[in-house]
Known about the structure:
The protein has 180 residues and is of the alpha/beta class. The chain has 2 domains: 24-112, NadA-like (Rossmann fold, 3-Layer(aba) Sandwich), CATH 3.40.50; 115-176, 3-Layer(aba) Sandwich (Rossmann fold), CATH 3.40.50.10800. The protein is 41% helix and 16% strand. It has 8 helices and 7 strands. The protein has helices spanning 23-39, 52-60, 68-77, 89-98, 114-117, 121-129, 144-148, 159-168, and strands at 42-47, 64-66, 82-86, 103-105, 135-139, 152-154, 173-176. Strand 1, helix 2 and strand 2 form a beta-alpha-beta unit.
Amino acid sequence: MSQILETAETIYPFPPKPVPLSEEQKAEYKASIKTLLKERDAVLIAHYYTDPEIQALAEETGGFVGDSLEMAKFGNRHEAKTLIIAGVRFMGESAKILTPEKTILMPTLEAECSLDLGCPEDKFTEFCDAHPDHTVVVYANTSAAVKARADWVVTSSIALEIVEHLDSEDKPIIWAQTVT
């Protein structure tokens, strides 16, 4: 038996929309952020998927906008002691892996990636343990815990080359993108 929902009932609760800021308020926030970045020896590193205003702020302050791997590489090369990573959780983890001596901050740890969520550490570890004779290849868009279990961490630009290399050596492979 079906039931019609009341119009006021929400099927999927959406987060509240941010309160729009005036141009003057935006300018004040940008000035404050720029000052704090200098004072705290920090740099803003943003992913392509972030809000264009965040990307512009990163570029205006000597930061960077790019994909997840390039973000981590930039953070490793940059002289700042603190990296502000505007992206999903695994991006901050990747920056920390490449630059363990730096402080990594993220606006939120709740920003997640479906590829990362599709490969939970517990299920992945169980699967790998059941196939100990396999070489483990994981996509870069996975958690630090999943990367730690891998023999190879790849991006889309090198995945085929690595898998072909392993195949030429007759190595059985576990390819971890999703294990749900």
